[in-house]
Amino acid sequence: MSHKPDQSTNNVILILFEHWGELWNRVFEFVGGVTGLLFDVFCWLIKSIVLRQVRFSKAATVAEVVRIGVRSVGIVCLVCGCIGLILAFQMAPPLDTFGQTDKIANIVGVAVLRELGPLISAIVLTGFAGAAIAAELGTMVVGEEIEALEAQALNPIRFLAVPRVIATVLSLILLTIIGDVVAIGTAAIVSVEILEVPFALYKANTLQQVALPDFLTGLLKAAVFGVILASIACYNGFKVTGGAAGVGKATTDTVVQTVVSIVIADLLFTALFFQIGWN
User: Fold this and answer.
1) Which of 11, 83, 118, 138 has its CA at 20 to 30 Å from residue 278's CA atom?
2) CA 96, chain centre distance (Å)
3) pLDDT tens digits, residue range 149-165?
4) H-helix or E-strand containing 103?
């Protein structure tokens, strides 16, 4: 006796396939849109280097560095400083069990320079500046300022996206360096003042453990995270529709998409560096 699947089962399977296809369609559309925007940005950068008449505005770039980077220094220092304190306090009990409390310096140095410095700085900058970029560009779209630029034969990518991408990358690299110093410094304060690790020993362990590749991998990650952050923010800002509600959706999408993309990129970097032995 044959058993045929009922109509409701077929409908459920069809709905699942539809949702799955819709999800991947949105993912490919997002990746393609961000990639296309980045391609346009790099094309304008190359043109600005080769062609004198296509120079981008240095004043606009400096203004974006101040708005994105300088104003984020305080919050990055606060968060990275707390991360250093947390690491020192959390690692003290298990290391003390083996009489290795001074090894906090080794762990903090590697963890901060390779991973936590660029990652925490990028996430903080995402909430502080990424959403602001998306909201600003989205408001310009709603106010038809982008159309006004295009009507005057001015390319929005050149005049709006390029300065923001450059400023975000430079800002995140510098913020990562500042965050590294603050996190390692606060961990040192806890280790020396509370856990009674001699400062000379803490310094010697740090210098012995960390090397130039640790610092360079962190800066490379920061640069890539900056490109990801700025490109996603600009993409969501340029594609705003639906007035004020669309601007709000763009800012929310920017934060969520950027954090997920940065974490995935960090995972890929870590796997790559592990495979090539740069660790």
Assistant:
1) 83
2) 35
3) 878 877 888 888 999 99
4) none
Q: How far is CA 132 from the centre of its chain?
A: 14
Rounded distance between C-alpha atoms, residue 70 and residue 72, angstroms: 5
CA distance 137 to 235: 9
CA angle 194, 204, 107 (to 5 degrees): 65
In 3D, which of 182, 15, 209 has the Cα closest to residue 85?
Answer: 182
Q: Is 160 helix (H, G, I), strand (E, B) or coil?
A: helix
Give the residue carrying structure tokens 């993309």. Answer: 261
- Cβ-count burial of 101 within 10 angstroms (0-12 exposed, 13-18 middle, 19+ buried)? buried
**In which band, very low, low, confident or very high, does the pLDDT at 211 lie, cut at 50, 70 and 90?**
confident
72, 56 in Cβ contact below 8 A?
no
Q: Rg of the chain's alpha carbons, rounded to an integer? A: 23
The H helix count followed by the E strand count for the chain is 12, 0
CB 67 within 8 A of CB 125: no
Q: What is the pLDDT of residues 257-279, one digit of tens each?
A: 999 999 999 999 988 888 887 66
Residue 142 to residues 36, 40, 124, 221: CA-CA distances in angstroms? 22, 22, 27, 34
pTM value? 0.88
